[in-house]
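U., I forgot to send this yesterday:
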Amino acid sequence: MNSRIRRRILLAASALATTAVTGALPLAALAQAPHKPKVALVMKSLANEFFLTMETGAKDYQKHNADQFDLVTNGIKNETDTAAQIQIVEQMIVSKVDAIVLAPADSKALVPVVKKAVDAGIIVVNIDNKLDADVLKSKDLNVPFVGPDNRKGARLVGDYLGKRLKSGDQVGIVEGVSTTTNAQQRTAGFKDAMEAVGAKIVSTQSGEWEIDKGNAVASAMLNEYPDIKALLCGNDNMAIGAVSAVRAAGKQGKVYVVGYDNIDAIKPMLKDGRVLATADQYAAKQAVFGIDTALKALKEHKKQSELSGIVETPVVLVTK
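Result:
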């Protein structure tokens, strides 16, 4: 046996021994190891029961599909802290998550950081509050939306209220954060219903989705318009604030209050009549459908530009 052949045999034996000792796998086997995607759910205020329900639904879904994906959830302290939500998205980019499912606090202000995420190769799916179509277009972004038709949902609530009003009755609208598409759409749905019955909208003001702010706005409306017959609130938090304002003004049973979201805290008020109606837009389903949309895109190796469409989730009228 010549020296060259002997050297080859020794090198091969050495390689086999190293593999046996370290347990190292061939490179081909390492390449075939499956990658479990990491999905980030970024929500608005976790002080809002609606988003806590959304978070719980997402975590339950991941728990039952733990072999399919990992999940990280984040939210901001209040509905108007847009800067904090932008920072959370930036942190998710640095963390190199595979997908972000986003309920934006502002329909326009979140678009630049969404573009940053997409440019980093992260799949982004929009839920709950639709990102502004014109701003998305200006950034040449294509982001699928998963959520309800907010205008339709608010119209359901408004029509139910309308059966108790007559033409000329004064009403006020307590709107969510005015720069969000869902607030605008709910206000539009309320206006559609009030126009149909001939009610007069005397004031539309933002309660910023919050109980205290909703209370302050409702109190001011009741003071300025003593003949007001109803307060149409863009979410249940503001409706809770409006109920307190009605009580403080001594107008229980004289002013109708309606909301939107069907959170647990509103249910006793529906039962005893302090709130006439709300809408259930199924927070948990929005999160799950959003996550599924992102996972499908990842599984099919689709680019953001190849994603399209709207996945409409249900919204139903809820009364006593």
